[in-house]
Amino acid sequence: MAISTITSGQKDWLSVLNNDLQQIGDKVASTTYPVTLVNGYTGDVKCRYWKLGSTALTIVTGYIKAPGAIPASKDLEFATLPKDGPTHLQSSYIYAPRVNVIANVSVNVDSSGTIHLRFLTPEAIYDGANLVLTAVEVW
Length: 139
Description:
This protein is mostly beta strands. The chain has 2 helices and 9 strands. A 9-stranded antiparallel sheet has the order 1-3-4-9-6-7-8-5-2, with no helix packed on it.
């Protein structure tokens, strides 16, 4: 858009534009969900959820450190989310830098509604690996 169109009739077009953009925040709801690491895993994982009209966005990022070596083909629970948290993290994954192993993250919900995050690696990962967790889910 041409600056002349934006500035037409506006004394301070930048302030008007910024004021209008601030209104977007009124239509966006966001929630941060606590992530509790379990089974000896340590690290820092964040879960953030945004609702934009009829579209939702969940981003889970961070890293975990395994309490020991991770065997191949074993389903391991590493964290939980509260019962009102997002359960649609199908495209999330964990990877171990320096060993080129990527594992999909699955979500299970128990009878109390607690959300359990699990992963299954295709091959073993050495003891003490930092695993990077990434999930971006839009629906």
